[in-house]
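Task: fold both queries, return tokens.
Query 1:
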Amino acid sequence: MIRTAFKCSNLIIAFLATATVTFAAPTISSLSVPALQVGGKVTITVSGSELLPSPVLVSSTPILTQKTLDGAADNSVQFEVVLAANASPGIHSLRVKNERGISNALAVSVDTLPTIPFAERVESTPVALQGNLAGGAILRTSFTGSKDQSVVVEVEGQRLGSSIRPVLRLLDPTGRQIAFSAATPALRGDARITAVLPEDGEYKVEMHD
């Protein structure tokens, strides 16, 4: 009897363990693009676990249409997302829902700007640059500015879940610093520069942790 009871216990434990894995809710760990564009189409890859079957994006901002692209796997799903034209700019949450449940939330930025990979030069504005900042690295980019042009440069890092404490510098065509911003509580630990350019020329933006 004892042996039989022990076998039954083993079977129950094995069944429960299997059930836990089979019906585990999805988990998301990263997004290929931490931004969605108001009224625009964005292709975004969600990485995590237990993402299948039938994954659907759920956000605190209205999604007009979404489509799961070919090649979806349990740990990575690519979506084509179109936000509604009345989506509110700001920091929003993004989750994955499927037949197993709903995932944890990751922060995503929503605005009207197109998002492109970080580049050494910005060819046209307005635009948002996406990149990674590690260790003592310095990210640098440049743009052509005009005298009396108003410029806003803003970092979204901590608001998107990063641990960086960004420092921003704006340099004029001679390399002289004309604006500076460190992490500020008003931006939940991020940084923003607002400046009026003093002359025509090539300006540089530097960011470090």
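Query 1 returned. Query 2:
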Amino acid sequence: MAQPITRQVLRDVMAVVDLPDPVVEFGSLQVEAAQDIDLRRFFAGRPFTGTDFREGPGVDRVEDLRALTFGDGEVGTAICLDTLEHCADPPQACRELARVTRRDGGVCLISSVMLFGIHGYPNDYFRFTPEGFRELLSGFDDVRVVGIGDPDIPREVFGIGVHGRSLGDLDLARLPSVVALQRVWDDPATGVKVGPLRVPPGQLARSLVRELPGVLRARRAARRSA
């Protein structure tokens, strides 16, 4: 279920990496009625199959990521965006993605979150570091990974793995969408840096007004009881 940030990165990857057919999206269910996140429009006129573990909008075929029914090397491009955090066994899921992806140039694209709130759909199990993504994609011959946001706790993590070829000098951090998104996070105008977060000044001020009196009372009480 690709979010807007992820779709921007996908467009950039499509411009620089050949994504062979057939294209299969793993996690294609459009959970919310108002969502317009069907990726098949990016692959118009090409063989595209949307899969998820339950039926619904955007789903052509029901699949369990941990035990896919696709044959070895049957998928040209495997796309699994903003989905792995909802899978109970991401390492097994990625082993399956590596298995079903073509050995002669097949591509796998994955994305997920690290600094992000719990969200169901229907369950939310994991968060991922860039190095965690490298390990998940270790079944591929060449891999690139990038995080967006704070270097220590990125908000989003993206990865690409290929079989039977090299990604050459591809640097995901230099993709236009990644550069733009990182620039927004780095820009002090977007908010005050509080740990790995950028908090808008107004929101920070309201939080301080609401929370600071309680903090001061608690500290005074602690000193009196010491």
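Both queries returned. Flag for query 2: The radius of gyration is 20 Å.
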